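Box 4.2: Ligand-aware structure prediction
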Amino acid sequence: MTDDVLVGLMSGTSADGISAAAVRFGAANALPRAKLLAYHEVEYSIAQRERLLRALDGASLANLARLDFELGSWLGDAALAVIAAAGLVPRDVRAIATHGHTIWHDAPRATWQIGQSAVIAERTGIDVVGDFRVRDVAAGGQGAPLVAIADRMLFCADTEWRALQNIGGIANVSVVPPRGMDAPSLAFDTGPGVAIIDGVVRSLVHGLAYDIDGALALRGAAIDAVVDDSLAEPYFAAAPPKSTGRELFDRSYIARIIDRCRAARPGATNEDIVATAVSFTARAIADAYQRFVSAPVRDVIISGGGARNPALVRALSNALAPLPVRVFDDVFFDGDAKEAVAFAFLAKLFFERRAGNLPAATGARGSRVLGKLTPA
Ligand SMILES: Nc1ncnc2c1ncn2[C@@H]1O[C@H](COP(=O)(O)OP(=O)(O)O)[C@@H](O)[C@H]1O
Ligand SMILES: [Mg+2]
């Protein structure tokens, strides 16, 4: 591979904002390497976040069509900002890789991301590769997790099996063999990441977007009966390949957890309810390893916003013990940039006409080149 600068853009299910990464890809000893040149985050306003979240329950077609174009302009601006932050100009950039924002995920029937590539190309004058998930779904796959190939090629360990656990709105794991070992990797959505915790916080504390530094959860006591009940959700027992989204872990799911907490412990405080959501989320991840991961994993590398919540990190470390849990930032670079880097890597593979999906991870019928090009 030759040296190439790409920009990756991600808007995750938690709808917190846009993550933009400028990355230089190169190779060392014939193995691909990614160097993060700059990372930039644009937080959504409360109104923007509401529109994105409402897109999946009941927005009109007119609103969706407009949101597609408006999000395209927000994404284009985020790309320009990260290019500037890297000290570059648009012509230094080979392409922008955009994931867009998922408004509907019902694989293997359908998946739909918005954030119009044409608008991004107009605004930046740079080639745009987007719509990565649809080809995998068309080939019978889950269209997720697509970070699996980057996890495997860029972030594997030298001599041991490793689990890379991303904790965004939804959480996903890639279990990857050591560098150079020719064994299939396993990757799937473990279930909720911060979606339930955020949802509980937002409905209990007006105006709070998430439990900053786990402050509420750390003061509460989880209600174990509710955690155990909630783990009976059939998604957790279903075997991979599998993927999920806000269609399942939605507002009514969140309301149900709150109701159960109040029924199980009269006088439950907000702190107790948030602690319950944290415990449930950690246990759901650890249970998935217990059920489905047979490889001799030696460390777990966590990334995504969930890795910034000390209450969740503590609960997860306890649930996974004695496996060591390490934060992605301590091993590679700012973990918030990881997914954006992974999509930039998919665009690089697109230009090389190389497959971006791992059929063992997504369940697709075969390897496929992912993405669609909108020329500058
Ligand atoms: N300082 C923090 N304390 C607690 N939670 C945090 C913190 N920073 C980020 N988060 C969590 O991370 C979430 C965003 O994670 P992110 O990886 O961007 O998710 P997604 O990929 O779904 O957009 C927030 O909604 C919040 O739950
Ligand atoms: Mg995000």
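In the box above, the bound molecule is magnesium ion. The first strand starts at residue 4 and ends at 11.
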